[in-house]
Amino acid sequence: MIESERVQFVEPGHQLIYAYISDKAGPKSFLSKPPDLRKLINEALHVLSALGLPIEGGTARRLERTALAFLAVLDLSASGQWMAAKDLKTPRKLLTREIIRYWREHFEEAVSDSSYDDIRRKDLLHLHMAGIIATDDPTKDQNDGTRRYGLNPEYSEIVRAFGSAGWDDAVQEFVKEHGTLSELLNRPRDLPITKVVLPSGQELSFLGGRHNQLQKAIIEQFLPRFGHGAEVLYVGDTANKYAFINRERLARLKCFDIEESKLPDVLAYSESENWIFLIEAVYSSGPISSERRLALAQLLAKCTASPVLRHSFPGQSHIPEVLT
User: Fold this and answer.
1) In the chain, where the domains are located
2) Which of 38, 151, 245, 304 has the fewest C-beta atoms under 10 angstroms from its C-beta?
3) DSSP state, residue 161
4) What is the dihedral of CA 64, 182, 153, 61, to 10 degrees?
5) CB under 8 Å to 173, separation ≥6 — which residues?
6) What is the pTM of this model?
7) Region 88-103: what's the mean pLDDT?
8) Arch. (CATH architecture) of 193-322
9) Using one digit for the tens of pLDDT, what is the confidence trace for 132-163?
10) Residues 6+ apart with CB under 8 A from 223
11) What pairs with residue 237 in β-bridges?
12) How confident is the model at residue 174 (pLDDT cuts 50, 70, 90)?
């Protein structure tokens, strides 16, 4: 058992002990937060770094959002509360939409409900891969909007003990026993692979899974039949957001900033019709919401091609819907 005596941190307003995001070089969102909350974010990043989560190389904003996702799941909104961190057995398990609501209420984050998928794909990605954050039902598809996330009970004691005497030595022993995400990523894996052939003839290798199988059907069956010669401009694998991307072509069409936007699963362009297809592979959740559709229309306001939105379901076909 780790000693319960707490280590005192530097008071707010002074230099932070764990300055993963600097008070001088942080993003606007970070700098606008009160000192105690900035301190809490850096404490969270210190915990995650000590547990082997890749921290170096990430942008300040990405680090901030990862820390905030971690803190929301733990139900921690102030420094000094680590002993009260909650886990799946507490129980504390949140939908991604509930994480967004927690951000707005406790962290001064102006994030819309339509950004819920970014929480799963970006902010929880490494936390979940590392096993620090777990789901309430591992049998659910990873794109299932009903999946709930919570602190893995195996990590509860070490997380709650943060700030106590002897924590640094204890976390090193914990990591030796449990391993790190870097070790998991470098471990040889025997995973099923799905081969996808683009209309151009280029072959891509995706991880197996029902979502990627649906994307394969979109590219190999729908586009050749109904795409009017469309070429694929973007498609993301469940494990690689940019499995294929034609940045030059997208730039010529004056499409939205591909790096900053929540992308559909497949983007394709028909030169003969001057249509750009935005296709969502809807496997486990419902079709695109009205809010999401409006957001996509706004992003494509300057696009020189006419946008066409498609919802693709296994075994179903839907008439294209033109965004206006």
Assistant:
1) 28-186, 193-322
2) 304
3) T
4) 10
5) none
6) 0.57
7) 95
8) 3-Layer(aba) Sandwich (3.40)
9) 999 988 777 777 788 999 999 999 999 999 98
10) 199, 230, 232, 268, 277
11) 240
12) very high
